Amino acid sequence: MTQAPKVVAEADLRVGLTAEYEREIAESDVLAFAANSGDFNPLHVDSDFAAHSRYSQRIVHGAFQIGLASALIGMHLPGRDALLGSVNAHFIAPLYFPSRVRVSGEITAWNTGSRAGNLRVTVSDLASLAPASEITMAFTLQTTEAEKLAVPAPPSRPLETPFFSSRKEKEDGDRKIVLLTGASGGIGAALLPALAEQFSVLALVHRRPLRERPDHTVEIQADINAAAWEQIIAERLDGRSLYGVVHCAWAGMPKGGLLQSDPRLIEQQLAFGTTHVVCLARMLFNLVGSSGGRMVALGSTAGQHKPSLALGAYSLAKSALEDTVKLLAPEMARKKISINAVCPNFVPTGMNAHADDLQIKREQALIPMGRSCEIEDIVGVVRYLLSPTASFISGQSIVLSGAQL
Question: How much is the pTM?
Answer without folding.
Answer: 0.64
